[in-house]
Amino acid sequence: MSMTLPVRVGFLPLVDAALPILARELGFAEEEGLALDLVRDMSWATVQDRLLYGHSDAAHMVAPLAIAATLGLGRPAVPLSVPFVLGLNGNAITLRPELAAEVTNVGGPGDISVIGHRFSTLAKARATQGDKLRLGVVHRYSSHNYMLRYWLIATGTDPNIDVEIATIAPPFAADALESGEVDGICVGAPWNSVAVERGVGVVVATTSQIWRRGVEKVLAVKTERLATERERFDPLLRALYKAGIAFIDPEQLDKVSSILARTDYLDGSGEAIRRVVQDRVLFAKGYEPVHIPDFMFQHREAANFPWVSQAAWLYAQMAKAGHVNANAADYAAAQNVFRPDVYRAALGPLGATLPGASSKLEGGITEPTGVGSIQGRLILSADSFFDGQAFDPEDFEQTSK
Amino acid sequence: MRIAIVDESPARAAVIEEGLREAGLSDILIFGERAGVAARIEEFAPDVILIDLANPRRDELEEALAVSRALARPVAMFVDQSDDIAMEAAIDAGVSAYVVDGFAKARIKPVLELAIRRFNAFARLKAELDEAKNALAERKAVDAAKALLMKKRGINEPDAYAQLRKAAMDSGRRIAEVADALLTAEKLMGGL
What we know:
The complex is a heterodimer of chains A (about 400) and B (about 190).
Chain A: E1 5-11, H1 18-25, H2 28-31, E2 34-40, H3 44-52, E3 58-62, H4 63-71, E4 80-89, E5 91-95, H5 97-103, H6 112-128, E6 133-137, H7 143-154, E7 163-167, H8 173-179, E8 184-188, H9 191-197, E9 202-206, H10 207-210, E10 215-222, H11 223-228, H12 230-247, H13 253-261, H14 270-277, E11 280-281, E12 290-291, E13 296-297, H15 308-320, H16 328-337, H17 340-347, E14 354-355, E15 369-371, E16 373-375, E17 378-380, H18 396-400
Parallel strand pairs in A: 1-2, 1-3, 6-7, 6-8
Antiparallel strand pairs in A: 3-10, 4-10, 4-13, 5-8, 5-9, 11-12, 14-16, 15-17
Helix pairs in contact in A: 1-12, 4-16, 8-9, 12-17, 13-14, 15-16
Chain B: E1 3-6, H1 10-22, E2 28-31, H2 37-44, E3 48-52, H3 58-67, E4 75-77, H4 84-93, E5 95-99, H5 105-153, H6 157-171, H7 175-189
Parallel strand pairs in B: 1-2, 1-3
Antiparallel strand pairs in B: 3-5, 4-5
């Protein structure tokens, strides 16, 4: 038996922190020779600081934040790498009930294009009255922010002019809806459920409806450490991969949801967690949860593979939001954050399916399609955006617009 | 130097403020109330903002600072970026700071070191207080358990205590834990 290596991973108490939690609790880390220690925090800022200053070795992180840290937005620049995606989607847009009633059929999913246009009419009317609608997202550099903006822009709302978008910490999102501090939120599980169950919010769209394969949380590591400590990080990736298999296994659903609900992890309702793990979404209080295909997409179809084109898409959204001044050098730096090379090297020995390409046309797949792989067979199903557009990472013009 | 302390714990904020004042820094404002905190900080226009790492509002504050037109690009930092030991001390203490761009980094260092010492002092005080509170609660439980034994078994206080101690030793637990278990059992059994 070789020596056990300690590794600390920072996380926020969210359902999509599942893979690091399960890697520890189901023994996969130990199997890989790691003593995995998890550090729970209450803000992304603190998760990020611990990672940057060596208090943690890796972190569960909103994907765009890894790019922001690398580019030095709000902090001195520290290059981060993403060798593994912890999951796709899982977020939803929830509005105050009276507002939701004007844009959707309360209680179930609707056509989010129609819902978005109705929302746009309302938002513009409010803006004209000098009383803009306020929407809360979990972080400035979050997929929540960029998915919300994507939906708004595509349905006629200018997120920089017609509404106000502010950051709201998820544990306070339901309170903020109730008090009227915000009119809507785009947050992750289980926080939409919390608002819905309290009767202060109604879900009008899930992010999986906006983009069927939207990149969400990633595992972030300092680039300089990843280069020199592969004996620590490669086993971590393998443990996370095995945790992904367990997460999607229906046989293990009870176990998985009860572990996540524990006070030292999410400290939340086991029932609400169980629901989202099964892709069932409670749209409004008093209604039955509805199954939304791929609501949370944590493992299948090489979901953990860090496609460089995902980083490209995120950078493009950061440019559209005015968070960065698009330039080719930063565009390249952002794409370099995602590290399919490390994924392949670490997971090859496990027999994981390894895509041959590192980048793809995002949103370009409309029906199950076989794609080239250097190991295993990979069939990707539809990854469409709701507006039918595709994102080509090679097209920098499109990015800088 | 103008310093803002963002802290929902008035006790800790006071401990930090006191330390800063003792060091001759007097231009300090504490922001305890969350409502409109970003706007009020902007109005105050501090050079340095201190906030504890565990504050769940840090992301909200950072967003507000990022979009602020009044404050010149405040950047989160821990003392000197090249000083790993100092940064680790800051994180251990649970303090983070935002420094307005262009502010002399040399001037911030003593302030942060002081804040770290004060955060640590507060943590120690709190630990001591918690310990004292626990000790008090434990003593109450032991007293209640003794009284219960005396009543049910018709024995005197030294005997009741001796029984608790023996049960604790036999089961490898602390007396307070045995007392707690006894009281819980009594409650569950409804005094049977």
